[in-house]
From TrEMBL:
The keyword Glycosyltransferase does not apply. It holds the Pfam family ABC_tran. GO terms for molecular function: ATP binding; ATP hydrolysis activity. Keywords: ATP-binding, Nucleotide-binding, Transport. This is ABC transporter ATP-binding protein.
Amino acid sequence: MEYIIDIQNVKKWYPKKKSKEVIEAVKGISLQVKRGEVVGLLGPNGAGKTTLIKMMCGLLIPNEGTVKINEFDMNANRSKALKHLSVVLEGNRNLYWRLTVKENLEYFSGNRGMSKKEISSKVDELLERFNLKGKAHEQVNTLSRGMQQKLSIAVALLADTDIIFLDEPTLGLDIETSYEIRKLLTEIAKGENKTILLSSHDMPVVQDICQRVVIVNGGKIITDENVQNLLDLFDTKAYSFTLQGKLTDAQFDQLSHTYLAKRMEGDGEQSVIEVTIQQSDQFYAVIEQLKEMGQSIEKIDRTMIDFEQVFMKIVKGEIRDEVAISATS
């Protein structure tokens, strides 16, 4: 099986200031990514994720272990490894502000050894696709953050590398632009046959475009699994009941004695509770119990889990043994 990214037992530690102790940022991570996969690389702050990313991009050398990009060792053959990788960093560190949109595309393609003539039609195509044609001759420092981010992704695509690494591609964007970026990334993921690594705290983006997620915490991989498998694993039958009257504390305690229940914010004289059940037939038992309490049900909604909830459950340790099974095994 071919892995375009092959990381074997990488470790990275730093000397602690004014001490003989060391800080272990990455504690022996192995990770393989197949060609064409779309993988989310996630983790809370201080988890070791940023250090791992820097080693993957050749910005840090691991104390132990190897990073191979398309079979080239990042330490021994760094220049050859980097030819297969484009990186879109968070913020506006990917562009030259005093160059125009078109000049940025031409400049960065020139760094890759491509001539203006060679990439001319591709530049026009990307300007059209990313809705930047009207801004082609404007300096980057006059653009909105969303347009700058779209241009950064266009630059990465123009390089036509096998791997695109995206660091927080929707951070700080307004809702409309965030959805536009998400749509573009989905199109790239499904239609460009690129290997994409996505690091983000925007869980809807991860859920929409990633096939698989790798979650790092404490310098180790704690989860490596298919996105849909994780959603299915943590899926529970939870229902929101909107009641016409007020549910007393005694009634709520009675309901909580049998089911996992929590109060939600009600409207006026209404009460809203969320009840999680283990078996389908318990749904009717909840309705019967509420009826016996003299409560009239105005509305019932099914509560669906999203990937943000899954991520938080895993990081907090609310995790089943099956989650730790590697998606590559």
